[in-house]
Design a protein that fits this description.
170 residues, 5-stranded antiparallel β-sheet, 1 helix, 5% helix
């Protein structure tokens, strides 16, 4: 039962990404046209999608800025957090780690929904000893309940990953 509830509450995403801003949104994304896509990918063998969507002025924080986490399908959103957009930015917390010598970066967005804690993450690290080997990106969401890990769901497809842009909403 907890596993079922957890799957309905799952969130988060990202992988090696590309920028997507207020242009028309093409599949697969739960974000609407005109919204900034901060994260978007498919999970569960392509059956579901995860997305962090919002609106923000790139130059300054405004009262109209918002961020929402969405999970489900385009026809049925199973989890929308928070439901009310006003003051939604304050419900999310960002953690950024960049280690220059290891050429590694980590971006995390944390939020709590009832007893469930979510960490939407995007990590990049070198694929080998040489930069020419490229980078490996890992993204997804970790879900815990009362501090106990329940799931680590990873994105399965190419992902729009702009978690770094979250700082501009504040």
């Amino acid at each position: 039962m907890i596993r079922c509830a957890c799957l309905l509450l799952l969130a988060g995403v990202a992988r090696k990404g590309f920028a997507q801003t207020s242009s028309p949104v093409s599949s697969p994304s739960l974000c609407h046209s005109g919204e900034q896509i901060y994260l978007s990918c498919t999970v569960e063998k392509g059956a579901k999608q995860l997305a962090l969507c919002g609106r923000g002025d790139d130059s300054r924080a405004t009262p109209d800025n918002y961020l929402q986490y969405r999970y489900g399908t385009k026809n049925r959103i199973e989890l929308l957090y928070p439901v009310v957009r006003s003051e939604s930015i304050a419900k999310f917390e960002q953690h950024t780690i960049y280690q220059k010598t290891a050429r590694t970066s980590a971006y995390e967005i944390h939020f709590r929904n009832g007893q469930f804690e979510y960490v939407v993450y995007s990590y990049q690290h070198p694929a080998g000893d040489d930069e020419r080997d490229g980078y490996i990106s890992d993204a997804g969401v970790r879900v815990a309940r009362d501090g106990k890990a329940l799931a680590d769901i990873r994105c399965e497809t190419s992902t729009i990953d702009q978690l770094i842009q979250f700082e501009r909403l504040r």
